[in-house]
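B., you asked whether I could sanity-check this one before it goes into the benchmark set. Here's the sequence:
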Amino acid sequence: MDRDEVARNQRTRLYGGMIEAISQRGYRATTVAHVIAFAGVSRRAFYELFPNKEECFLATYDIVVARARKITLDAWVNERGWANRVHAGCKALLDDIAAQPKGPKLVLVDALAIGPKARERMLLAGFAFERLVTDAFQRAPDGVGVPRVLSRGIVGGVRQVIFRRLLEGRERELLTLTDEVLDWIESYRTPAIARLGVPASISARRTPPMPAEFLARDDKRARVLSSVVHLTLDEGYAELTDPQIAQFAGVSTEAFHKQFPSKEECFLAVLDEFVKEAVDSVRPALQDAVNWQEGVYRAVAAFVDYVIAHEALLRIAFIDLFELGPAMVGRMTRSVEEFTKLLTEEAPEPRRGPAVAQEAITGALWAMISAYVAHGRLAKLAHLVDHLAFTVLAPYVGPKAAVEAIQAARKPMRAL
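And here's what the prediction gave me:
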């Protein structure tokens, strides 16, 4: 082989070595020595190709994503008929993940341990698959596609279904979930979606920024939690120390540790309190509604009101969370998971994709909201109320009925 062929061969082996090493040890415990041992490549060759472990990991991440995309496209091309192609593409992707989970696990689970760069890669991978979904539904013979924001939600929902199974070692379940996943996706296709819009009453009800109640209490714990929020926003979580947090809160380090064993536990407590307060803020909307569908719409509007009024906490829950590294694993969608559970407590049995509907909806809502937060478009999140409510309702009552329920729910909202 010539020099370029040798380099390509070594890169490929290093990708495989990285996947194997990460699967056995996780990102933090994996070293360059572990990777080159699996790859059968010298240390000198490694550093000629990559400056460090992280760059090799990110290159491996990109290769795994590109491979998954290619598998999906190849399956599409090799079938005839739109419905067959959609089914083949989805099945090929899920079956391959079930059969060879180490690479996908590196992308969806282990990558969360690398910090903020995980969020960048997640966004890029999401964009690639969103384009696939949008393009696929544009080719539907009935001409019924899905808006771009719902393509993002669909990708987020499927990612959540895969993520939970990879995280919990249940990837073999993916072999039987193609029809369920496609049934859930199909629940969002309807010409009636064009009737969804932005009611003026929702925009007019925007509340100004305000401190969260759990941070406004006059006690030591609230001061410490508030310190973590302020310092994270000002200086970044990674650089914080326990003494620095304690000093900002006006307490001793010993007093800080009586409240929390570490800055990580303190940060997670902020997230838990934020989620609890956000969920509690929407309960009245559900209770005052005349039916479940109206309750969902009211609750989504109330949730959007709350998060817009607490922009700093929303950033912590959707962006700064990635700073936690390994502690991020399993917590990615926590800010939406409890909200989804509350919305579906009184829901009827899902008509579409019942085996995956709730967890897929959680992933879809997280993806749709986080995109607005990440791109600094939080003020426009109010424009998303209809589509967020539709994302929840459609699998339970059907797409057309979901649109009609949203239109009906707007009338009592205007009277408030």
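One thing to flag: The domain at 3-176 is CATH 1.10.357.10 (Tetracycline Repressor; domain 2). Otherwise nothing jumped out at me.
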